[in-house]
Amino acid sequence: MCAAPFYLKVQMSPILQINGLNKAFGAVTVADDLSFALQQGEALGVIGPNGAGKTTMFNLITGTLAPDKGAILFKGENVTKHSAARRCRAGMARSFQVPQPFSGMSVFENAMVAATQSSGLSGQVAEQLCLDVLDQTALLNKANTLAGSLTLLDRKRLELTRALCAKPKLLMLDEIAGGLTESECTSLIQTIKDIHASGVSIIWIEHVVHALLAVVDRLIVIDFGSKIAEGAPKEIMASPEVQEIYLGIEVDA
Amino acid sequence: MSDQPHEISRSSQAARVAAVLGALIIIILVAAPWWAGRADMRLMGELFLYLALASLWNLMAGYAGLVSVGQQAYVGFGGYMLFALTIFGGLHPVFAIAGAGVLGALIAIPVATLIFRLRGAYFAIGTWVIAEVFRLSFAQLSALGGGSGSSLPVGIVRSLASSRSGRESLSYWMALGAAVTAITVVYLMLRSRRGLALTAIRDNELAAGSLGIDIWRTKFVVYVVASGLTAMLGALIFLQKLRISPDAAFSVNDWTAFVIFIVVIGGIGTIEGPIIGTLIFFALRETLADLGTTYLIVLGVVAIVVMLKAPKGVWGFIVERYDIQLLPLRYRVNVKEHAKR
Ligand SMILES: Nc1ncnc2c1ncn2[C@@H]1O[C@H](COP(=O)(O)OP(=O)(O)OP(=O)(O)O)[C@@H](O)[C@H]1O
Ligand SMILES: [Mg+2]
Question: What does the pLDDT look like over A103-138, one tens digit per residue?
């Protein structure tokens, strides 16, 4: 007991814990005995090559996919059998890597769906939350635009907007920084830092490594469905496994 | 954002004009017994019932994604319940109509739990199978005439109103009331918090589920409410026909195919669509009815042309061009005048 590291004593219980998750599509294993824990208020980065199984891991955690084996504990409760909707109402929100807008609804209405259905707000409180988040994600000037007519970049912004309007305790972001200009990326980083500072726990899958490293406290590396490295961002980025995967990618933290 | 430069409005100029016009039209229609002939009132009564059926089918298929081709199950069930409750239960027809609605909703509960296990095309087939089961079951009921059906006893018809014109006015008003009720129920449902959930389900089930919407339960509520109201409409329809038989009561052509035509032509997934579709359907029917089978072919051709040229229906076509809505369902973010720079 005395050997427990200092940070385990000061931090609270984990908000998310996944134990031995397995998932296979036919003969292809996309999650291979995945386990890790996320502490309350922590920001965790996830990297790994294309097709490694990062998005699949999000699908398993949020309940879009059912694991073949393993368990997911959210706020200490086993949610493995719970629907995606129930997990969302319990405080998980995600963005989709391939945006899934409500095409026939306006940007503002998309936000309202999240605010009313997951955080259970209504009336002016819900409307004000949506306005504030849209302002934060730089979509307020497109509030009345039909989501179906947005550009890919704006659709990604809408993904972030909806996830934030769900007022999550655990925010899961799947590649939202790709394609942004330098200044847009800087303001995105600031937005996510602000959200993190407000106490929200974060898991962020991102290929734009410098953005990720500006925010996260810890990094895990996934390849062929299994976790091949985990630890402090700088050490992980310097490790031979990651160097091999990210050969040629400049790491400027 | 201390001075809140943005405000949300749900109404629009067009919606306010439409509300006034709608109220005027309803008043004129209520007064129809004093200005319309007997045949016109019959036609309008039928039109209202189709409008109600179409609005409910649109709520199910256009919003909740429940593409049922078996709503004739509830039309027929409601019709039979009217006969059973008045003849054997001794209820006044008006109470029997309400009773048919309640019983329709109750029977929809086990049906939903059964067919909701089916997806996509299998769901549609499942609804049709259920309707066939209903038809075959009622054909076995010898007390209600079995396969050849039965007529509503004169006494029960008289209990509605003593004079023929009184009865005709009453059934006209009930049909008008049914259409107004159906559209109002759909409107209120869509304007509420549940409406946001339903519209989200219409557009993207994956995202809807991930944002906390209980898709099964939302669809279940829609199915039960729409089916109960459809059973009430069935009771009303057969109160006008005065005669019921399994083939007429559970006709897939009359109570589902025409209804789908109306919704698809008018614009699925909008409240206005079924209204426009009903008008188009009756206009076609009244001008082409003399052509016999050709009339059905024309209906088919119109349906195909609309699906190819304007897949969102006539109303969708209009909205794409003019960005208007007659019923204030949407949220619009406006910049307050004084906050503009
Ligand atoms: N529903 C599915 N059915 C079959 N195979 C799937 C399915 N979803 C994902 N896969 C496969 O699983 C593997 C992992 O995919 P996943 O999307 O999780 O990777 P990823 O790490 O998110 O990749 P990327 O960085 O490109 O987003 C891929 O080979 C993919 O083709
Ligand atoms: Mg991915």
Answer: 999 999 999 999 999 988 988 899 999 999 999 999
Lowest mean pLDDT segment, chosen from B117-121, B237-241, B259-263: B117-121
Distance A241 CA to ligand 2 centre (A): 20
Query: Is-contact B180 B30, C-beta < 8 A?
Result: no
Tell me, yes or no, whether A84 and A26 share the same domain.
yes
Nearest-by-CA chain A residue for B195:
A113
3 state SS of B290 = helix
In chain B, domain spans? 33-251
Q: CA A13 to CA B139: how far, in whole Å?
A: 64
- % residues pLDDT > 90 (chain A): 79
- Which of A142, A167, A192 is the endpoint of a domain? A167
CA of A175, closest atom in ligand 1:
27
Does residue B339 surpass a pLDDT of 60?
no
Nearest-CA distance A71 → chain B (Å)? 19
Asked if A118 and B212 come within 8 Å (Cβ–Cβ), the reply is yes
The alpha carbon of A169 is separated from its chain's Cα centroid by a whole number of angstroms, namely: 11
Which atom in ligand 1 lies closest to the alpha carbon of residue A97? 27
ipTM above 0.95, yes or no: no
User: Are A53 and A178 found together in one domain?
Assistant: yes
Q: What is the pTM of this model?
A: 0.87
- A62 at B interface, C-beta within 8 A: yes
Rounded to the nearest angstrom, the distance between the alpha carbon of B120 and the centre of ligand 2 is 27
Q: Check whether residue A71 and residue A22 sit in a common domain.
A: yes
Helix (H) or strand (E) holding A29, with range, is strand A28-39
Measured between CB atoms, does B215 come within 8 Å of chain A? yes
- Tell me which residue range forms the domain holding A179: 1-89+174-183+202-253
The CATH number covering residue A81 comes to: 3.40.50.300
Domains: count for chain A: 2
Dihedral angle at the C-alpha atoms of A234, A190, A93, A149, nearest 10 degrees? -120
pLDDT of A9 over the 60 cut = no
Structure tokens at B146: 């079995």
User: In terms of pLDDT, which residue wins out, B158 or A98?
Assistant: A98
A5 and A70 inside one domain: yes
Last residue of a domain, one of A115, A140, A167: A167
